[in-house]
Amino acid sequence: xxxxxxxxxxxxxxxxxxxxxxxxxxxxxxxxxxxxxxxxxxxxxxxxxxxxxxxxxxxxxxxxxxxxxxxxxxxxxxxxxxxxxxxxxxxxxxxxxxxxxxxxxxxxxxxxxxxxxxxxx
Length: 121
What we know:
By secondary structure, the chain is mostly helical. It has helices at residues 6-20, 25-54, 73-82, 92-96, 101-108.
């Protein structure tokens, strides 16, 4: 989160020890420890409330797939192209014969019409 490596952290601690002083440093360290403990309790309570409100639905969610760091547009497009829905892929013989894809889709659909979404317009 803060992207601080070990040597930078040691420098920060040394500067804090010099600025705060050896007399007040134990008190500030104790206050920091209490703050961290309170934050942990608060986060645990918040997680418990969220789990209680979501119920069994929270158990079925794959949280790793919703992580924005996992977003890869190339993978999403590749997965979408590799798994076509049955009946939506035009026959290669019709494509070679010059039949338009909408006509091929219309012939493949059970109603005989091209797919149309009335809510999209």
